[in-house]
Write a structure and sequence with these properties.
The structure is a single chain. This protein is an alpha+beta fold. Helices cover 27% and strands 39% of the residues. The strands form two sheets. It has a six-stranded antiparallel barrel with strand order 2-9-12-11-10-13. It has a four-stranded antiparallel beta sheet with strand order 6-5-3-8, with no helix packed on it. The protein is elongated. The protein starts with a helix and ends in a 7-residue tail after the last helix.
Length: 360
């Protein structure tokens, strides 16, 4: 009966040693996937929040005061250049024109009579000059009355689309009162702010004289069906943000874009001979990015890198790595600095083929 505990203890020791041995064997048998950095010609796409403006967006205001007799358009309506939009009651201005014409006829007769007398040396040249001045003034008064009358007919200055109507038929208008807003949406100006460093890269690039093409991501997360062209850069930086405004022009044949919309400008920049590594092969410590590099003795060493740009699933490395370096691809949370590992090298092309990324 006393031998039973001894056998149980021996059995427990054998199990313990066997289990630990089995765990150690499993740890030693683990093989990590590694790869090399690779150089490729690729491109990066940067995003900028933007504001969309019509190429022409103006306020339509009353040039004369008076009773709004007729509204011949509606909100959101497309109008053609010269199309009648608003009619101010013209009666007073018609009467003023008739009065001006009558005074002009009288001045014309007076001038003709004075000229006849001056030709016969009956009146002095000064009297003739005075009569002519009155005659010219009367013609100007007629032209002015015609202009005032013309302002009672408010027409579209260009093809466009109307915004909200600020008045209703029967309103008493004051001179300069806002009636509506007219937008020419055939082309759209899209403004977006660019940081100073990116502005300098843009203007100092070799192809700075070529017009840069951009895309527009709309608020519904769909890309606009026309490409835009960067045409101008504003003259000054914003001292508060450190940005400068770029302006891209988009054709808008289907009228999809409207004045005041927002979106995101997508600007693609080519990268020549860029060193690429998978993002999953990196880790971050105190705002610095690192990789594990495996040396010739299969020892992993933590190494800091400098990331120049970010792609989908990839980083563009500016410094810190060489093309021949072997970097840990997976399992970076399972190893420690200076640890010896077994690894299997996966070719960079195979790694890129399994990532959702554009690379040439």
């Amino acid at each position: 009966m006393k031998r039973f505990p001894i056998y149980v203890g021996l059995l427990a020791m054998v199990c313990s040693v066997g289990c630990n041995s089995h765990k150690e064997e499993k740890h030693e048998e683990r093989t990590f996937q590694v790869t090399n950095p690779v150089y490729r010609d690729t491109s990066i796409t940067k995003e900028y929040v933007c504001q969309v403006h019509s190429i022409r967006n103006i306020e339509i205001r009353a040039m004369e005061k008076g009773y709004l007799q007729d509204i011949r358009v509606d909100e959101g309506q497309k109008v053609k250049k010269g199309q009648m939009m608003f009619q101010i009651m013209p009666n007073i201005y018609q009467a003023e024109l008739q009065k001006a014409k009558a005074e002009s006829e009288a001045a014309t007769i007076e001038y003709q009579n004075t000229k006849l007398l001056a030709d016969n040396d009956v009146v002095s040249p000064n009297e003739l000059a005075l009569a002519k001045a009155n005659y010219e003034k009367s013609k100007a008064e007629v032209a002015l009355a015609e202009t005032h009358l013309g302002f009672t007919n408010i027409k579209a200055p260009f093809d466009g689309i109307l915004d909200h109507l600020h008045v209703r038929e029967g309103s008493m208008l004051e001179e300069g009162e806002l009636l509506t807003t007219l937008s020419d949406n055939s082309q759209m100006w899209v403004y977006f702010n660019v940081p100073e460093a990116e502005y300098l890269d843009y203007v100092m690039s070799q192809n700075k004289d070529d017009k840069k093409e951009v895309r527009l991501l709309m608020a519904n997360n769909k890309t606009f069906n026309q490409k835009g062209v960067v045409e101008t850069i504003e003259g000054e930086f914003n001292n508060e943000t450190g940005n400068i405004a770029f302006r891209a022009t988009f054709q808008n044949p289907d009228g999809i874009l409207r004045h005041g919309e927002t979106g995101t400008v997508l600007m693609t920049t080519p990268l020549k001979h860029a060193m690429l590594i998978p993002q999953k092969a990196t880790f971050e410590v105190l705002d610095k990015r690192y990789v594990f590099v495996v040396d010739q003795d299969h020892i992993v060493r933590q190494k800091e890198i400098k990331v120049g740009a970010e792609l989908s699933h990839l980083f563009v490395v500016e410094s810190g790595l060489d093309e021949k370096d072997i970097i840990l691809l997976e399992g970076i949370r399972l190893v420690k600095d200076s640890q010896k590992i077994a690894y299997e090298l996966e070719q960079p092309d195979e790694v890129l083929a399994h990532l959702d990324v554009y690379a040439e």
